[in-house]
Structure formats: structure tokens, C-alpha cells
Amino acid sequence: MLIHVESHKQDKSVGRIRQQNESKIIAAAEIEFARHGYKGASIQNIAERSGLPKANIHYYFRSKQGLYAAVLSNILNLWDEVLSELDPEGDPAQELEAYIRAKMALSRDYPLASRIFGIEIMHGGPHLKEYFQDGYVDWFKGRTAVFETWIAQGKMNPVDPAHLVFLLWSSTQHYADFSCQIDAALGKQQAMLDATEFDKAADTLLHIILQGCGIRQP
After folding, report:
1. Rg of the Cα trace of the chain?
2. Helices 43-50 and 54-61, interaxial angle, to 10°?
3. Are 83 and 165 in contact (CB under 8 A)?
């Protein structure tokens, strides 16, 4: 019994170390891929930036392509999870507010990953083919069905659900992908907007989108 307990503790410790190392590597990879793109990115530079041996990267991710896929998967999972949380039985105003604020927080906290995704898409998404083919259409229809339900219930105007989702994606991700332009326009000297500006942006988007959809704020 004692051996089993000690083994369990050791497994948890190893799992925690692995998770920490993978997080360090992905954070370093985001910087490298955002600056140099997939082709120009160097595993050696990522290793040095993460403070881990190059062998660790190959151990956890096997290759540069595997690491790049992990970076993309990380941000896509976060985005998809937030959109999947929209509840057709919920109040549209509250549901959309939660979504917009969560999506803005992701743009604030993961700007590099968002830019990498944008670059990948502009190049035709060669590393995203499997993601877009693996039940993606059905998943997306499930998300637009939430808005169709609200429209059928008379809770919002009959806008096109698919294009509303595209608007939500583009407007929230803009603050990550085009932060340099936003900082320049607002006269900011920092690399990213502060929490106050993000709140203002979220308030503005929320007001415009709810008004445009005919949804009353509580």
C-alpha cells in the first residue's frame, strides 16, 4: 500500500513537471513563431528562451511541426471552449456579455497565439486542414443554432447567425492581432492595452452588438 501511495505521488509530481515544462516551451514558441513564422522559427531559439534543453522540446513535441500544432491547438481550444459555453436557454444579453468579455480577455492574455493563427490563416491554413475537416462544420452549426433558437424565441433580431459569429471573432481578435496599430492610434507607449482600455473596448462592442441584434441589456 505504501509503495502504491509513493508511486502515485511520484506520478503526480512528474505530471506537474511535464505540464510546467510544456507551458514554458509553448510560451517561448509563441514568441518565436510570431516573430519569424513557422519556416523561420528555430527550435534552438525556443529552447534557449524557455530555459530548457533542446532535447526536452523533441521529447515533449517530437518536432517543430508538432510544437507549432500545439501552439495553434492551445488557442483554438480556448476560443472554441468559450463559444461552446453559449447556452440557448440562457438570456442572450448575459450570454453574449460573458462571451465578449471572455474573448477579449483571451486577446489580452494570448495575443501572440492569436497573431500566429492569423498568419496561418492568411497562408491558407496548411497546418489546420485536419482541424477544419474533423467535424468542424457540425460543431459550427451547433454554435449558430444557439442564435437561431434565440431568434425563433423572439429574443433577438433575425440576423444571419454565421456572419454574427464571424463579427464576434474578428472584432474581439482585432485587439490582439492589430495591437500595434491600436496603441499608435491611442498614443500608447506600451506593447498592449491595459485592463481599463480592454474593459472600454468590451463595453463598446457589447453595446453595438446587442443594439444591432435588438437585444436589451438587463
Report:
1. 20
2. 110
3. yes
30-49, pLDDT tens digit by residue? 999 999 999 999 999 999 99
Give the predicted TM-score (pTM) of the model.
0.86
For 120, the enclosing helix (H) or strand (E) is: helix 111-122
pLDDT tier at 13 (50, 70, 90 boundaries)? low
Alpha-carbon distance of 156 to 212, in angstroms, equals 9
Q: How many residues does the chain have?
A: 218
145 vs 206: CA distance, rounded Å: 20
* The C-alpha cell that represents 110 in the structure block: 494570448
Query: How far is residue 62's CA from residue 151's CA, in Å, rounded to a whole number?
Result: 47
Residues 185-202 as b or e (16 or more Cβ within 10 Å = b): eeeeeeebbeeebbeebb
Q: Is the predicted pLDDT of residue 133 greater than 60, yes or no?
A: yes
Mean pLDDT estimate for the chain: 91
Task: Report yes or no: 114 and 176 within 8 Å, Cβ to Cβ.
Answer: yes
136: phi then psi, degrees, rounded to nearest 5 = -65, -45
